[in-house]
Amino acid sequence: MSQSFGKNLKITIFGSSHQEYMGVVMDNMEIGFEIDMEKLDQFMQRRASGKSKFTTKRKESDKIDFIYGVRDNKIISKTITAIIKNENYKSKDYENLNDIPRPSHADYTSFIKYGNDMDMNGGGPFSGRLTAPFCLAGGIAKQILEEKNIKISSRIKNIGGIEDKNIDLANPPMDELEKISQKEIPVLDEKKEKEIRNLLEEVKKDGDSIGGICQVFGENIPKGLGDPLFDSFEAKISYLSYGIPAVRAVSFGLGLDAMKMKGSQHNDQFEIKNGQVKTITNNAGGVVGGITNGMPVVFDLIFKPTPSISICQKSFSIKEKKEKILQIKGRHDPCLALRTPPIGESILALTLLDLLNE
């Protein structure tokens, strides 16, 4: 079971949702870089639970403790290690799930693979809680990239079919995206925000859940990153994306809308602007042939509805081999997509830093 990734920048995530600690090891770091801890905490809090009525009521401070490689906020070793303490977990909410698997969770597939030996309280290593140390690493990577004038931002593009306003993918409004990043529902269109809020209230009242789309933007991305075929830039982004619980699809630029277009509509035609080669549109999302072309990188992460819902569902007893009715207890997000923008930004930041460390 691999919980590590990266070729030049090696990242290892450890721990689980209901263990005392979880954390991250980052290897091949830039010695001397000073981490802005306030900015890192703000980044982490965008992902944290318990900050909104539309997220799980499990409250975690996600306080970072660097136990190796950082002194006085400065990186002093090629390898750094940080931990986050889990403070508010309730393992008793999961006691019956060792025998009765939750639909659309990894309970059953984990049992098939590992039997009862895997600690699956809170979802174990399959839990979205592990995106906290992932974002810890991503937040640091994002700060390093900012010093190289690479900007990364994101938004919620769609919740339950309600779509935020269209953006010119060739010229994404990075300043506006930064302004909405701390909002409870980070969308640009205030009217759509109200519609999403009403939908979430309804879904929450019904004990159900809903999915959504996070859209990620990167500006000033160097040209020439990635290689053809299996080492493509898209493949590297997708590799990390599918390691995130609940991701169902990844698409670049216009994504699936491309299949409804003619080539004359979808092709990104060239222009020379201030002596620089640009494309008039950015339907490809800044990547062609698996290689970045200097246009903004844009990709969508499509998330399924939170599988933990309070509505009764059909399941079965592993021991008895009999069908059972399961009602899930505990505290869960009616829409986990709301907390995913910093995760998407971390995916892009860690991919870029790994490639730039070559």
Automatic annotation (TrEMBL):
Pathway listed: Metabolic intermediate biosynthesis; chorismate biosynthesis; chorismate from D-erythrose 4-phosphate and phosphoenolpyruvate: step 7/7
Gene3D superfamilies, A to Z: Chorismate synthase AroC (3.60.150.10)
Keyword Flavoprotein: yes
Name of the protein in its database record: Chorismate synthase
One GO-annotated biological process of the protein: aromatic amino acid family biosynthetic process
EC number(s) from the headed UniProt entry: 4.2.3.5
Domain of life: Bacteria
SUPFAM superfamilies per record: Chorismate synthase, AroC
One of the Pfam families matching this protein, by short name: Chorismate_synt
Keyword vocabulary terms for this entry: Amino-acid biosynthesis, Aromatic amino acid biosynthesis, FAD, Flavoprotein, FMN, Lyase, NADP
GO molecular-function terms, A-Z: chorismate synthase activity; FMN binding
InterPro entries assigned to the protein according to its UniProt record, in alphabetical order: Chorismate_synth (IPR000453), Chorismate_synth_AroC_sf (IPR035904)
Family: Belongs to the chorismate synthase family.
GO cellular component: cytosol
Enzyme class: lyase
Organism listed in the record: Anaerococcus vaginalis ATCC 51170
